[in-house]
Design a protein that fits this description.
Strand content: under 5%
Shape: elongated
Number of strands: 0
Distance between the termini: 45 Å
Largest sheet: none
Number of helices: 9
Structural class: mainly alpha
Radius of gyration: 21 Å
Low-confidence stretches: none
Helix content: 55-70%
């Protein structure tokens, strides 16, 4: 079974393939009729269209394959933990639960809790709230 790769990682995979073949971005650009800057944009995911991506992949001897997979739904334990963390975050920052939920959603705190549940749920809620505060602050939130 193939390893799953997120769409935004395809450029990095193409860059790695190009390097493994001993090609510079200029070399790869010549193969597909574009300048080095365009190859850089493709590899960095800045300016990607399917046609350019397919041309570069073909020139590098690989086939880009895209599939749509259903998102995994978090289990009840994760949902319960996130809800409790929202309540504790609201209490700590003197917010309503709705305000805390909206804030954590907007500034990626809920995503953080879901992604790192396996570690975060082993911490105290004080540590969890501190982590959420830092994550949200790094993502543009103003609470400190």
């Amino acid at each position: 079974m193939a390893t799953k790769t997120r769409l935004n990682s395809i450029g990095a995979l193409l860059a790695q393939r190009r390097k493994n073949r001993g090609l510079t971005q200029t070399d790869a650009g010549k193969l597909i009729g574009v300048r080095k800057a365009m190859v850089s944009k493709i590899e960095n995911g800045v300016s990607v269209n399917i046609g350019s991506l397919e041309k570069l992949a073909d020139a590098l001897g690989v086939e880009p394959v895209v599939s749509l997979e259903p998102k995994e739904r978090p289990g009840k334990d994760v949902v319960d933990y996130v809800m409790t963390a929202i309540i504790e975050f609201a209490r700590h920052h003197a917010l309503t639960i709705r305000e805390a939920s909206n804030y954590l959603n907007r500034f990626k705190g809920i995503d953080f809790l879901s992604e790192f549940y396996d570690v975060e749920h082993t911490l105290s809620f004080n540590d969890c709230v501190a982590d959420l505060t830092v994550v949200c602050h790094k993502n543009g939130g103003a609470l400190t």
